[in-house]
Amino acid sequence: MSSDSSVPKSVTVEEMAAEEDAAIEERYSLYEAYNELHALAQELETPFEAPAVLVVGQQTDGKSALVEALMGFQFNHVGGGTKTRRPITLHMKYDPQCQFPLCHLGSDDDPSVALPKSLSQIQAYIEAENMRLEQEPSPFSAKEIIVKVQYKYCPNLTIIDTPGLIAPAPGLKNRALQVQARAVEALVRAKMQHKEFIILCLEDSSDWSIATTRRIVMQVDPELSRTIVVSTKLDTKIPQFSCSSDVEVFLSPPASALDSSLLGDSPFFTSVPSGRVGYGHDSVYKSNDEFKQAVSLREIEDIASLEKKLGRVLTKQEKNRIGVSKLRLFLEELLWKRYKESVPLIIPLLGKEYRSTVRKLDTVSKELSSLDEAKLKERGRTFHDLFLTKLSLLLKGTVVAPPDKFGETLQDERTQGGSFVGTDGLQFPHKLIPNAGMRLYGGAQYHRAMAEFRFLVGAIKCPPITREEIVNACGVEDIHDGTNYSRTACVIAVAKARDTFEPFLHQLGARLLHILKRLLPISVYLLQKEGEYLSGHEVFLKRVASAFNSFVESTEKSCRDKCMEDLASTTRYVTWSLHNKNRAGLRQFLDSFGGTEQVATSGNPLGFSLPQDAPGGTTDTKSRSDVKLSQLASNIDSGSSLQTTETRLADLLDSTLWNRKLAPSSERIVYALVQQIFQGIREYFLASAELKFNCFLLMPIVDKLPALLREELENAFEDDLDSIFDITNLRQSLDQKKRSTEIELRRIKRIKEKFRVMNEKLNSHEFAQNLNPPSLQ
């Protein structure tokens, strides 16, 4: 009986090698998929990111040198000062058959396109970019330089080398360097925000209590849970320790100095030998193989120096933290683990992006199919109706548009649309106006501006009147040389009113025009939000915007002209029934000039406030005595009232009509009349202006604008439809957009399929047996 079925079949060396090769191939496939994903994320600014190692350190911590040591060859511009002004993304792939670095440089215009470049060409490109940015106003750029490398010494890693952090000296003379330091810190902090990135935090210090780089890193990763701390330049630090206890603390820092929750549990320690590869007189290594050997030799020497300093042999755990090779192995295994963990999470994100791109392609295809005259006209008319609907909604009131983006406080409104400023040049405190601090738009903002106008103009007092103004206004009549103080008061009052109120008309028009013009961008936002915006038809939209702005401007000017006519008529001819709002008080005031003491000493029979230095505010002793004597004589001889009345009338005529010497009584009469006339003009002006702006500026937006826009639209359709919608250029643009979207869709589909296949293999039993591939060292 044969026993072949019961004897387990031995695995040959060839089969083991084949399985090993398959495992390595699977790793390469996953790395390649992630490299494509990273390029896609950079190009499309998509929300997903591939796991990568982000190198962060100070300007002289040896970042670029460490990256070169990890790669196994030199390529960057290494030295003092700022040598990295753009982040450099290195997609590294281990290839034992590749004896020399095989490099591809990602195109700045299309990151998916990688052009083959020699090592020297990539070095020249990086140095040229650094020099170019050094001359720019912004000497740093967040746009990554993408390099793909295959080499026998490369690990399977994606590393992003960032510009070195700067620690400038204080003082005004170092302001330029301080500005650069803030720019670099902002750039690096933005890169660290990506949760998928493993942060490689470099510290060049022998004292762990000094957290130069960790201070920045911990602002993003407070627990250092995704941060690996690396102490660089170990070979220069070992001689600094005077006793073994210092070395012990340095190799195993206490929790008080370095949080034990950091990734990898404890820091790594590396040294990179100085010297460049080349054939020049200043080159130290003739080939990258020599550089690689020097890195390995430095690692052995560092371990020997530490053991000599400690007086003991390092443990295996300690040796696993010393040297570039140990860091490289840890990073590779860690990144492989992150890759596997991220695959199930990446697949739904790619599916979402795929569906979004399909919708985008459908939208472009529909726009292309609608590029005929009838459909374009219909879309234009539909946009016209929707635009007017949004305008009406904004005037009536809505909360759809965010106030923080489109609203204006009263202070913002004054800055952008102009302030109400009187003849004295002073502005009314904005805090006293209701809702001054609220960010308003549309009808609410219009109402607040009108309320401010009403509040400010309603509180205006008549400007001061001088004696010289009164005398100059008297002049000479055409038939006698007497004085006519009623005419004098009218001349002064209308001049003061015209000069006071006319500027407010222009200011009100400018303010309301600013508010109404703001309705256009807010309406466009609402249309875009609801997907009703005519994207791509810029010429048509500019024509609609131009028609709207022209209508609002012409309507405001017409309304302001009507208000100016009212102001001109009110300040050209005084109608007492209109201008004198308190004739009873004025009659009492004039009757009092018979000489009674009550008039001379009364407070204010007209109901207005006289300034302390105003005429009639004080009377001399002689005048008071004369009044008392006159009153006494009147009381004694009450039977001669007619004669007394005639005497008083004669005295009044003598002091007002026949006398050019400006008496206090005449001055008070003029002042009282001017105040009455000014008050009447102010009240009429305020009511008229508010009514006219509401009727002839606001209402036309509602009832006249629709017909005007429709007429403008139809005229445009009759002229030249192609020039209005720019059909030729639009078709070319949409064709290009469709082609690029189709390419994008194919790329996403290809990457999505790669991740789906990888996920199936990761979940299969056969692939699970190959999770521990052979060392790639």
From TrEMBL:
Residue numbers spanned by region Disordered: 604-625
SUPFAM superfamilies: P-loop containing nucleoside triphosphate hydrolases
InterPro entries the record matches: Dynamin, Dynamin_GTPase, Dynamin_N, G_DYNAMIN_dom, P-loop_NTPase
Pfam families to which the protein is assigned, alphabetical: Dynamin_N
Highest taxon in the source lineage: Eukaryota
Domain Dynamin-type G residue range list: 47-344
Gene3D superfamilies, A to Z: P-loop containing nucleotide triphosphate hydrolases
Xref: PROSITE patterns: G_DYNAMIN_2
Protein name as annotated: Dynamin-type G domain-containing protein
Organism the protein comes from: Brassica cretica
Lineage: Eukaryota, Viridiplantae, Streptophyta, Embryophyta, Tracheophyta
